């Protein structure tokens, strides 16, 4: 008999989701829409499958989110053009949530059907491409004539042997007919290597060796051989089996807005998704089937998978050793909006870093060249109307209504009207967030005891994300201090995760005369005020605001006019 899956609103925000396999097994989960994980209400053979539970609950939450998406915020816009654009975006958000729900429902149904009846005798042992652990895989007793499918004993994901010659690893078994060969995560280049992904390395400059792949990308070769049309038809991989858990955990971090419930999951999934936001943000390769906290990712196999996916999107990413040290704590710097190329190699950091940390080795994170360039001119529309980067710098630096009008007249409609996947601000911010995840994961793998993190503008956002990522990793490197200059981050939030790995203080240097943050950030991020403009809130003993308005008159004056504490 055919299987089925349904979601019910029991009362208020209390949800129940039921699944039935094609052989009659059933599982029911209940919980609040804000819960990261549900409670098993009733179940049998299926309740021990983490991947099934995760996809069922993801379906329930995204189904609920699609139906609760409101037009209220869009209708609040007074300008008819902005209201129309906002309503269009709200409808797109609703469709995106429904797309995600549909993917999770189909995946949950597939897992329920194959996990209902597995063999205790027909067993394979190998690395799982969904959870990245060395596990036992039991063959599902499917009807005769169907292609084989195994179920990972650890994470519950459907798998099958990798087709690479001599490979004993297990590939993720996609739903439906297999039209191209299925390869394991090593031979897909989802991770550098199974054993390597669990490991660490010495100094930060050793990261390139760590990221080298141990096996050829046979998946890419097979897709080329099969033809692009066939490759495009492949279903979304099951590698994101428990993305709601990791997505919810990431989305709840302060730097990402401190969301909760379905909003946190949705936002976290959009960050994790290396692919199109319009497609539901499901483009990231690699499994997350048993992950229930970010800490399980940083410095581990999942972290390697996430970082690898992000790195494949950003060819400009690299970490350069600017200077060897004489025993000081390693310093890592990152530039941002319109400042990434200043001073060439050092990017304007040499003087400010030398004065405060003369004995430290210094690393620079190069990142998001395309995104920073695109946002630097705020899209082609802004270039044509405002005269390019020079005009933006001039208008933003002048504290006049005329300057604000130049920016507001172009940036506002551009940011509201653009699709999220094309919005230059959103794309640059997302790239900064992803870069922070990469940096946090790489730092977590080094043997250094602590670091100093320094960033400006969106580079400050990179460092804040890296700090939050490290804050979830027990026993990882500590942060001696962090210096966030003109941070392009919303000023309000729960900053416990930001300071969790910090032994000293996170300093937020802000200037009330920073008109890039006053005007550009305001229009790019409606409803938020940048921390680089007014400081972080709330402050704490580990998060201190430093007002540098008397020395920093524009967004481009921090490095030459600020002394680090």
List the helices and strands and how they pair.
Elements: E1 4-11, E2 14-20, E3 26-32, E4 39-43, H1 50-68, H2 72-75, H3 80-115, E5 118-127, E6 134-140, E7 150-152, E8 158-161, E9 170-172, H4 185-188, H5 194-197, H6 207-210, H7 218-226, H8 228-232, H9 243-251, H10 261-272, H11 301-313, E10 318-323, E11 331-334, H12 350-356, E12 362-366, H13 369-376, H14 379-386, H15 388-397, H16 401-417, H17 424-445, E13 450-456, H18 458-471, E14 478-485, H19 496-499, E15 506-510, H20 515-524, H21 531-534, E16 543-547, H22 558-561
Parallel strand pairs: 11-12, 11-13, 13-14, 14-15, 15-16
Antiparallel strand pairs: 1-2, 2-3, 3-4, 5-6, 6-7, 7-8, 8-9, 10-12
Helix pairs in contact: 1-3, 1-10, 3-16, 9-10, 11-17, 13-17, 14-15, 14-16, 15-16, 15-20, 16-20, 17-18
């Amino acid at each position: 008999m055919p299987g089925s899956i349904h979601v019910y609103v029991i009362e208020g925000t209390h949800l129940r989701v039921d699944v039935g396999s094609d052989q009659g097994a059933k599982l029911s989960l209940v919980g609040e829409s804000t819960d990261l994980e549900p409670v098993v209400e009733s179940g049998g053979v299926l309740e021990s499958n983490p991947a099934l539970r995760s996809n069922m609950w993801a379906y329930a939450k995204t189904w609920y989110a699609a139906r609760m998406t409101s037009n209220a915020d869009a209708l609040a816009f007074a300008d008819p053009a902005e209201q129309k654009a906002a309503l269009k975006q709200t409808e797109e958000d609703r469709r995106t949530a429904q797309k995600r729900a549909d993917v999770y429902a189909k995946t949950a149904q597939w897992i329920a059907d194959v996990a209902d009846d597995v063999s205790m005798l027909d067993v394979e042992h190998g690395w799982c491409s969904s959870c990245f652990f060395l596990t036992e895989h039991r063959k599902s007793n499917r009807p005769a004539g169907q292609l084989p499918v195994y179920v990972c004993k650890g994470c519950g994901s459907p798998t099958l042997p990798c087709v690479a010659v001599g490979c004993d690893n297990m590939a993720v078994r996609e739903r439906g007919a297999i039209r191209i060969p299925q390869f394991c995560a090593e031979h897909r280049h989802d991770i550098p290597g199974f054993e390597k992904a669990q490991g660490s390395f010495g100094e930060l400059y050793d990261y390139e060796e760590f990221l080298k792949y141990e096996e050829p990308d046979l998946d890419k070769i097979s897709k080329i051989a099969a033809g692009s049309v066939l490759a495009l038809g492949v279903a979304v991989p099951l590698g994101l089996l428990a993305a709601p858990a990791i997505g919810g955990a990431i989305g709840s971090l302060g730097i990402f807005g401190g969301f909760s419930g379905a909003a946190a999951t949705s936002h976290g999934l959009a960050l994790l998704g290396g692919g199109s936001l319009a497609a539901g943000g499901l483009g990231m390769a690699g499994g997350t089937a048993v992950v229930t906290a970010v800490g399980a990712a940083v410095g581990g196999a999942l972290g390697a998978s996430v970082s690898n996916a992000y790195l494949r999107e950003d060819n400009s990413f690299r970490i350069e050793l600017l200077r060897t040290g004489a025993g000081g704590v390693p310093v890592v710097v990152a530039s941002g909006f319109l400042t990434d190329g200043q001073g060439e190699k050092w990017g304007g950091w040499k003087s400010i870093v030398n004065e405060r940390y003369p004995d430290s080795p210094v690393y620079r994170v190069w990142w998001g060249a395309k995104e920073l360039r695109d946002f630097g001119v705020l899209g082609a529309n802004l270039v044509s109307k405002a005269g390019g980067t020079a005009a933006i710098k001039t208008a933003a630096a002048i504290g006049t209504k005329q300057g604000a009008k130049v920016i507001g007249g172009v940036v506002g409609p551009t940011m509201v009207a653009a699709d999220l996947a094309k919005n230059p601000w959103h794309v640059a911010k997302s790239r900064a967030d992803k870069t922070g995840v990469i940096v946090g994961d790489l730092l977590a793998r080094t043997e250094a005891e602590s670091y100093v993190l320094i960033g400006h503008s969106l580079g400050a956002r990179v460092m804040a994300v890296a700090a939050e990522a490290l804050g979830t990793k027990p026993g990882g490197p500590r942060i001696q201090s962090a210096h966030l200059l003109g941070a392009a981050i919303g000023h309000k939030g729960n900053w416990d995760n930001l300071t969790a790995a910090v032994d000293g203080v996170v300093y937020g240097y802000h200037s009330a005369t920073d008109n890039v943050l006053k005007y550009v950030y305001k229009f790019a991020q409606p409803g938020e005020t940048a921390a680089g403009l007014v400081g972080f809130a709330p402050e704490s003993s580990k998060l201190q605001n430093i007002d540098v308005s008397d020395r920093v008159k524009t967004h481009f004056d921090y490095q030459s006019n600020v002394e680090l504490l």
